[in-house]
Amino acid sequence: MALLTRTAGALHRRPRLRLALLLTAPLLWLAVLYLGSLAVLFVSAFWTTDSFTSEVVKVWSTDNFHELFTTPVFRQVILRSVGVALAVTALCAVIAFPVAFYTARIAKPSRRPLLVVAILTPLWASYLVKVYAWRLILSEGGLADWLLKPLGLSGPGFGLPATVLTLTYLWLPYMILPIHTALEQLPDNLLDASADLGARAGRTFRSVVLPMVLPSVTAGSVFTFSLSLGDYITVQIVGGKSQLIGNLVYANIELNLPMAAALATVPVVVIVLYLLAMRRTGALSSL
Amino acid sequence: MRLTRPLTAAVFAALLLAATACGSSGSGSSTGLNPPDLKPLAKLGKSEGEVNLIAWAGYVEDGSDDPKVDWVTDFEKQTGCQVNSKVAASSDEMVKLMKTGQYDAVSASGDASLRLIASGDAAPVNTKLVPNYKDIFSGLKNGAWNSVKGQMYGIPHGRGANLLMYNTQKVSPAPTSWSAVFDDAGTYKGHVTAYDSPIYIADAALYLKATKPELKIKDPYALDQKQFDAAVALLKKQNADIGEYWSDYLKEISAFKSGDSVIGTSWQVIANLAADEGAKVKAFVPKEGSTGWSDTWMVSAKAKHPNCAYQWLNWIVSPKVNAEVAEYFGEAPANAKACDLTSDKNFCATYHAADETYWKNIAFWNTPIEQCLDGRTDVKCVPYAKWVQAWTEIKG
Question: Which of A171, A199, B96, B292 could cysteine-pair with A224, CB 3.0–4.6 Å?
């Protein structure tokens, strides 16, 4: 008992020690497990595989990165993956904005929590179930074909457009929520002031709403962009014959681990660049 | 659970190890394989009381997945060997697990088996200690994937062929040749499907063997650079007409049901399931022959329970059990007597179990290594690691 009191007293007198004890475990987790594994990934990308034994040879070499930048197929797949991620992000933003505007400002306040729940509901279902559902929707003679038939069109079939569409569906809630929150917090009196000063709806949107909500859009785009860039299962199910960067990592992981590691650093680098670009907009400070 | 072969086979990894092992142990034989000198078990001793197995999903069933599917409990009762089984997801995993020395036996496919032989992880098998071996179809004995110089390294379990499947309503006239998915694939542009694995390059090679005699392809798993480039070029051309590649049998079934795929490679079991679900499909071996797979139960060179392992080998190919496994998994049984004991009396006919002329046209999966498997010594063949790279490029 006395020991306990003494320890408590000592801790009370030394706030730094208190903080150190509190933070050691989580910081260790972050540094060792999280950043450590990323570091191992990066380092192993500089190793090579013995082309004969397929065993990892721990000799420093930049061959993998050289191959990464000079092999046309890798360049092509990287560009395709970034393109898909950007398309998904843009599509999510365009769809999410009106939805969030409705749920945050137009719908009756009593209904808003219910609408938010409805937006979140798809997240309760398994990722695979949803992607397979999209496979059925987009398959030949499926729902998409049936809906477009009266217009003399047919669905996109399996391929990159189907991948973009499915990923957009999957990550849409991550875009709606930040925008919804931002719009909800938008003070009414700013809109009133804008109207009093003679601005029409369009002008108010451009000059008042958009600048205040844009950081949230970028925050949401960080989710949609990074999730799309790392995805490799959706494209296997609805992507037809296309392959993205994740598929290349998967194909190399057994036979050529260093090459897989080199490939895996690409999305990491792309996302770091994306985050740096987003930081300039101030989006990250409002996360 | 029932049909994970497509997944496992799809992964099909790290065959290069075989190449290494062969390379390091030197070569001189016509197969390019010169495995370490290991002695098979001379005679059966007392049961050790347990046995550790590595198997494909569906090969070692004790009723825990489906109460009706159980051939392990009786084995344990009769032999007193407690079965501990580990399901492996890929050939690569099997090889890794076997290297630990903690397992006694493994159900290896043609790619893994050769690696295990070459590296000395699998011991030769004394077939005299496996009474049921005499009833195994002769076409499965002394294969390039399960034996070296007449010495068996395991007991064959079952086999299957890669078939050409087509939608009977949308594809007419009925195809007779693999050209339907290669040279004439443009007819069904966007609705052609192919197996998503580097080993599919062998399918193209098999087609070229028949149609381009000037390439002089003898064995689709032994391709020199020129032959390999021709096969890759053919597949790159095919890619333009491919709707999707498949490695998951469910995906293949759904694609044929909806009409997204109308022609492409398949397995007998997929054809059966798709037909059961209402798809109008037919699957057959085209006139050029086909590729296929064959699994072998092998005993570890470091087995701690060799007697129980041998008893398991004998048990799993015994007529009754072999019939049950084959029907549950959807493959042709290895034991000729199994055909009388299947619950579906047409099972063996459907899967061509006894039809040796059918299997003569099947080139079973093997490990492409640098020493040409067809016996050529004047050229180097393209090893599997290069197949993997090429496959990425083919898909673009």
Answer: A171
Is the CB of A52 less than 8 angstroms away from the CB of B20?
yes
Residues of B in contact with A250 (CB under 8 A): none
Same domain (yes/no): B168, B154: no
Does the CA dihedral A238-A241-A246-A249 come out positive or negative?
Answer: positive
Same domain (yes/no): B337, B221: no
The reply to whether B279 and B300 lie within a common domain is no
Cβ distance of A252 and B388 shorter than 8 Å:
yes
pLDDT recorded at residue A50: 67
Other residues' Cβ atoms within 10 Å of the Cβ of residue A52: 18
The residues in B 167-206 lying below 8 A from A, measured between CB atoms, are: 190
Residues B208 and B312 in one domain: no
Strand-pair partners of B86:
B54
pLDDT at B41: 87
DSSP per-residue letters across A221-275: HHHHHHHHHH--SHHHHHSTT---HHHHHHHHTTT-HHHHHHHHHHHHHHHHHHH
The answer to whether residues B377 and B232 belong to one domain is yes
Report the number of distinct structural domains present in chain B.
Answer: 2
Complete domains list, chain A, with CATH:
73-286 (1.10.3720.10)
Are residues B396 and A239, on separate chains, in Cβ contact within 8 Å?
Answer: no
CB contact under 8 A, A73 and B396: yes
Q: Residue B354 falls within a domain, yes or no?
A: no
CATH number for the domain that contains residue B117: 3.40.190.10
CA atoms of B295 and B109, how far apart (whole Å) = 4
Please name the residue of chain B whose CA is at the shortest distance from the CA of residue A247: B392
Rounded Cα–Cα distance for residues B392 and B44 (Å): 48
Residue of B nearest to A76 (CA): B396
Query: Is residue B196 located within the same domain as residue B110?
Result: no
Burial class of residue A31, CB neighbours in 10 A (0-12, 13-18, 19+): exposed
User: For B293-330, what is each residue's pLDDT tens digit?
Assistant: 899 999 999 999 999 999 999 999 999 999 999 988 88
* Minimal Cβ distance to B17: which of A53, A136, A140: A53
Average pLDDT, rounded, for chain B: 85
> Residue B177 is part of which domain span?
160-291+369-395
Q: Is residue B341 part of a domain?
A: yes
- C-alpha B128/C-alpha B140 separation (Å) is 16
How far apart CA B123 and CA A242 sit, in angstroms, is 42
ipTM: 0.79
Count of pairs with CB atoms under 8 A, one residue in A, one in B: 76
**Six token digits for residue B79:** 């032999």
The model's pTM: 0.79
Q: Do A54 and B17 touch (CB under 8 A)?
A: yes
Distances (CA, A) of B296 to B150, B156, B199: 15, 4, 19
One domain, residues B55 and B120: yes
| pLDDT band, residue A52 (cuts 50/70/90) | low
pLDDT at B375: 83
User: Same structural domain for residues B344 and B221?
Assistant: no
Residues A133-185 pLDDT 10s: 999 999 888 888 888 888 888 888 899 999 999 999 999 999 999 999 999 98
CA distance A162 to chain B (A): 13
Say whether B388 and A243 touch across the interface (CB within 8 A): no
- B388 assigned to some structural domain: yes
Most confident by average pLDDT, A82-86, A190-194, B255-259: A82-86
User: Which residues in chain B come in under a pLDDT of 70?
Assistant: 1-33
